[in-house]
Amino acid sequence: MRIEKRQMESGRDFLLYGLSFLLLLEWLLPLPHVTDTGFIYVFVLVTAVFFFITFLQLPVVLSMLLKIFVIFYGLYLVFFEGRFFSLDWLGLIVIDIKGNIELMLTGGWHALTDMFRSFLFFVLLSIMSYLLFYWTVHARRILFFLIFTVIYVTVIDTFTIYDATFAIIRTFIIGFLLLGLVTMYRMIEQQPSYSAPKFLPVRLAVLLVIMIGAGGVLGLFSPKLEPQWGDPVPFVRAAVGMGESGIGDPVQRIGYGDNDERLGGGFLDDNTPVFYAASTKEHYWRGETKDFYTGRGWDTTTPLEKKESMLDISPSIATHEQLEVELAFTNESGGILFDHLFYPGELLVTDQIRNADLFQDAYTGKASTYNGTEAVQLSNYRYEYRYPSYQIEGLRLSSEQDPQVIQQYYTQLPDDLPERVTKLALEITGNADNRYDRAKAVELFFGLGDFQYETVDVPVPREGEDYVDQFLFETQRGYCDNFSTSMIVLLRTLDIPARWAKGFTQGEVIESLDDTRDVYQVTNGNAHSWVEVYFPEVGWVPFEPTRGFDNNVDFIEPEVEIEDAETAVEPGSENEPEVEDVFADLESDDESSTSSNGGASGNWTISGGPWILVAAVVGILLFVLLRNKRIVRYYTLTRFARRDDDKAFIQAYERLLWLLTYLGWKRQEGETLREYAERMDKQYSANEMMSLTVEYEKIMYGGQSMDSSWSNQKSNWITFVRKIDS
Fold first, then answer.
1. Short-list 71, 98, 93, CA closest to 80
2. Which 3 state secondary structure label does DSSP give 234?
3. Reduced to 3 DSSP states, what percent helix, strand and coil does the chain have, rounded to the nearest 5?
């Protein structure tokens, strides 16, 4: 009888203690999104072990030893990758702890290492495991912790980008269930003569869940008054320095900010609109550039100097189109404004914009707005700019004699940059003999191998570890900051000047205006960084290494012979022709045959009647063809089935990619060709797509000749196309 009672109490205590652990998780889960904390799964796992050790109620000395071991093991998982049983890492941890304690005693709090901060955090979690055990199991008091959890979650949701919608729901359910059980158990235990049924915890839990669920549903569907007071959040944000500029937000993990001294860590997507832009072209919106790479992030060391003139560029290298754009910022992002412009290409406005003085820095490109000595934040503005198109052959022939000032600021690297970064750069560019091809080789490098575009599980570099070295050789996962910074560092090891550009991608078209302009919505999620490489005769040319993103500047291929025009594909590009291109040959044939039979034009009573008929016939034909996917597939099949030339493979493969996209099987963002091929093979119960993809990659990235590729792969291509059922 005594044993049964103890078992019931253990089950009861485990239920309460487990619910308190779930409540503590609501404190841990937001950390990767609002701080630089990485490896959150390690912290969750270690916390669970702390709770288990505490629940066992072992002797104090044994419990402390076990928790110390778990703390050191957690530090090993986060900061070390060597063999666990070598114990070399153990000595490094002890040395780090000793050094940081000395810093604390001398007041050097700002210099504490990430490892020591993680150590202190683990200690805090260990203490929390004991406190929650005391509050739930012994004291049967949990209201205090529940209130602070609710406050914490709501503050995080209100003032950061962390979306706590489901966290609030979880906290509501777990917290009230725990509070109800604790209260009922406390009342039962105050009646010593009362004998509780064996399955009382389960019954109480089910009853409370039903009550909480019913209350939640009733509250959801009940009528509610409109807000009676104004939103206090903008006032509070402004009062604590988190207002309009967005500069003071210490937990911003996505969006445009000024502090890039420490990169790394993950973030949540935030689609809050920042501004709307009316433009005739889609392009990136540059805010500024930075020159100094610290090993952990970016800083600006260039002197403040006004940009006076534009570089005179030969048309054989680049041409510019003069355009106009209009930007208007939105209140949806909390009234965030900036004291500088966002612009594509090259600004034509020089000294003033909308009654504000304008200063464009010659080095950073930052176009600041001010009035006297005060910074001015414009809510909307209009300007003219020059947008470039580059001739690839001209860039290849461009001089590589850089001005001394460019070399001084834009080839800088940390003294402790690992040597293997330089070796990798030499390997990537070994076959290139000019600056453009070297830059392009590095840009395309990130589309190969195991590099992944990742925004959530992105580690923060360990103390003393280089940000680029970690990404290139260890994690190989990250977002635009990882890719762009790595490309710049690789280029700088080759003495190629490059700088870090930041701003926004083009955004999404939400409306088309009558004057041929489109309205783009640009959100916090469009915040982006990219690379600009210096060419002495051109200036700064943008490159896009981030996987899943395309460079929005036109690079024009050199002219080729007609028979080779279709095969002149930039390495790594994935051309997806428009639907009209598929029928270009048929359209031209129809037009020529119709015009040849139109000699009796004098019999038409309508001026231009034959041409109207031709246009109507062609339009109807295109409409029928475009509406019938089976015809498109048949035309694609017959077009390439008749070809036996060696150059047909690349065209056939890329036409197959287009056909799959046209039929609704579009490549997903960040999906590699092999992953896409594997998905398509699975979809159509085939294996030909992977074989074609491997052959394509060998040609495009491995330098393999395509002389026999079509003869070897033609049967696979035909077989796969026939399996596609529109």
1. 93
2. helix
3. 50, 15, 35
Nearest partner of 493 among 511, 466, 524, judged by Cα? 466
What is the C-alpha to C-alpha distance for residues 518 and 510, in angstroms, rounded to an integer?
A: 8
Q: How many CB atoms lie within 10 A of CB 500?
A: 25
The Cβ of residue 259 has, within 10 Å, a number of other Cβ atoms equal to 13
Cβ atoms of 435 and 535 within 8 Å: the answer is yes
* pLDDT recorded at residue 599: 42
Short-list 578, 579, 575, CA closest to 550: 575
Tell me 295's DSSP state: S
In whole angstroms, give the CA distance from residue 520 to residue 458.
29
CA 295 to chain centre: 21
**Burial (CB count <10 Å: 0-12, 13-18, 19+), residue 709:** buried
Token pair of 294, please? 């610290």
Q: What are the φ and ψ backbone dihedral angles of 693, each rounded to 5 degrees?
A: -65, -45
Compute the half-sphere exposure of residue 243: CA atoms within 13 Å on the CB side of its CA.
Answer: 11
Q: Locate 540 and state its tokens.
A: 């700064």
Q: Would you give the end-to-end CA distance of the chain in angstroms?
A: 71
- Of the pLDDT bands very low, low, confident and very high (cuts 50, 70, 90), residue 551 is confident
C-alpha 286/C-alpha 268 separation (Å) is: 22
Q: Exposed, middle or buried: residue 95 (CB in 10 Å: 0-12, 13-18, 19+)? A: exposed
Distance separating alpha carbons of residues 219 and 57, to the nearest angstrom: 41
Per-residue DSSP letters for 520-588? EEEEGGGEEEEEEEEETTTEEEEE--STT----SEEEPPP--GGGGGG---TT------HHHHTHHHHH
The number of beta carbons lying within 10 Å of the beta carbon of residue 540 is 21
Any idea what the Cα angle at residue 120 is, between residues 117 and 123, rounded to 5°? Answer: 155
pLDDT higher than 80, residue 63: yes
How does the average pLDDT of the chain come out, rounded?
79
Q: 476 by DSSP, 3-state: which?
A: coil
* Helix and strand element counts for the chain (H, E): 24, 19
Contact between 692 and 680 (Cβ < 8 Å): no
Instruction: Order the strands of the 374-375 sheet from edge to edge.
Output: 352-353, 356-360, 367-371, 374-375
Residues in the chain: 726
Contact 711, 717 (CB under 8 A): no
102: number of Cβ within 10 Å: 10
pTM: 0.49
Q: How confident is the model at residue 590 (pLDDT cuts 50, 70, 90)?
A: very low
Cα separation, 234 vs 242, whole angstroms: 9
Convert the pLDDT of each residue in 187-237 to its tens digit. Answer: 777 765 555 565 666 676 677 778 777 877 777 777 767 665 655 655 565
Over the stretch 616-663, which tens digit does the pLDDT of each residue have?
A: 566 566 655 555 667 777 777 888 888 888 778 888 888 888 888 877
pLDDT confidence tier of residue 410, bands split at 50, 70 and 90: very high
What residue type is assigned to position 335 of the chain? G
**Dist. CA 156–CA 497, nearest whole Å:** 41
